[in-house]
């Protein structure tokens, strides 16, 4: 596990560089005439006159050789010159920055809640294998794993926004607008965490050190939280890291359902409108966010597992 963790950490910047290069080549890879896209977005009723298209290509730098265009885009990206939206003329950095703030709040809240709830449910189930609580947790995890966020989100809207009128169904006006989106993301991630914690904790509870610690009179709460749950954390963090990227992708669906001005919704709208400057920067930020979450999870594994620390040293 140590070598795999270190390899993933080492490859993180390499993957990010590859995504940046891919994003810089999007105008060429999409096969779409960027000049025509700009003309259609800015001047919907304009006639695609060759002279006008040539002027737009010159303005976008599309009349220069490919290596020169890519180097220019990379240079502007490195200096923070992210350009403007073809659709609104708004600076891309400002638009993506606002969207990122919404998405990162939802993602962090969902990750923390999934980790806490999954670990707590797994420990409760492992304390009494075969009990009613164990069976209830097992059934709940199977149901949550089988119910993806794009199916759960409309159900939450129907029950809590339309039926009970307790929470808003759309928009972004404060923390209360994040409750249903986070609730739609948590179950699918908490389910594998609970299953992993249950399996690892139940196995740890049968080890000699746990039996001896209980015989010495250590309290059950201390035994389960410190001596049993802690050794199970590396496996739980591995599951969290593995599934976090998928959850970040699922955030885009949730943002569309709840009409949130987050990064996923912004990317979807930009792709539909062929607003390539927004797509390029949004893609880089989304991938960087997923890679950062994965890297943090891998780093935490090295911190909480003394075996990996010794092996890494």
From TrEMBL:
Recite the UniProt keywords alphabetically.
Cell membrane, Membrane, Transmembrane, Transmembrane helix, Transport
Q: Where is the ABC transmembrane type-1 domain?
A: 100-297
Transferase as a keyword?
no
Q: Which Pfam families match?
A: BPD_transp_1
Primary subcellular site in the record, as a coarse category: membrane
Transmembrane annotation, as ranges: 7-26, 100-125, 146-166, 178-197, 232-258, 278-300
As for subcellular location, the record says: Cell membrane
Is Transport among this UniProt entry's keywords?
yes
The record gives the membrane topology as:
Multi-pass membrane protein
What InterPro entries would the database entry show?
MetI-like, MetI-like_sf
The family this protein is said to belong to: Belongs to the binding-protein-dependent transport system permease family.
Check the record and name the PANTHER family matching this protein.
Answer: DIPEPTIDE TRANSPORT SYSTEM PERMEASE PROTEIN DPPB-RELATED, PEPTIDE ABC TRANSPORTER PERMEASE PROTEIN
| Protein name, as recorded | ABC transporter permease
Q: Where does this protein come from, organism-wise?
A: Saccharopolyspora cebuensis
């Amino acid at each position: 596990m140590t070598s795999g963790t270190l390899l993933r950490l080492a490859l993180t910047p390499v993957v990010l560089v590859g995504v940046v290069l891919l994003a810089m080549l999007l105008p060429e890879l999409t096969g779409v005439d960027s000049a025509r896209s700009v003309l259609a977005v800015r001047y919907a009723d304009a006639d695609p006159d060759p002279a006008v298209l040539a002027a737009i290509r010159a303005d976008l730098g599309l009349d220069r050789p490919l290596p020169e265009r890519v180097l220019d885009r990379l240079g502007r990206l490195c200096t923070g010159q992210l350009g403007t939206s073809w659709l609104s003329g708004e600076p891309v950095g400002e638009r993506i920055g606002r969207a990122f703030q919404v998405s990162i709040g939802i993602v962090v809240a969902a990750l923390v809640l999934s980790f806490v709830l999954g670990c707590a449910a797994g420990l409760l189930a492992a304390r009494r294998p075969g009990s009613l609580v164990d069976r209830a947790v097992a059934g709940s995890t199977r149901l949550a794993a089988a119910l993806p966020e794009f199916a759960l989100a409309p159900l939450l809207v129907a029950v809590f926004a339309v039926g009970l009128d307790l929470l808003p169904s759309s928009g972004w006006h404060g923390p209360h607008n994040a409750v249903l989106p986070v609730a739609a993301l948590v179950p699918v991630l908490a389910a594998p965490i609970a299953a992993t914690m249950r399996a690892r904790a139940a196995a740890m509870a049968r080890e000699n050190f746990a039996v001896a610690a209980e015989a010495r009179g250590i309290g059950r709460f201390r035994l389960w939280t410190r001596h049993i749950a802690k050794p199970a954390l590396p496996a739980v963090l591995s599951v969290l890291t593995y599934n976090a990227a998928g959850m970040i992708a699922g955030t885009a669906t949730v943002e569309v359902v709840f009409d949130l001005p987050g990064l996923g919704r912004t990317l979807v709208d930009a792709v539909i409108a062929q607003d390539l400057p927004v797509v390029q920067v949004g893609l880089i930020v989304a991938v960087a966010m997923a890679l950062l979450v994965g890297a943090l999870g891998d780093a935490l594994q090295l911190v909480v597992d003394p075996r990996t620390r010794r092996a890494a040293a």
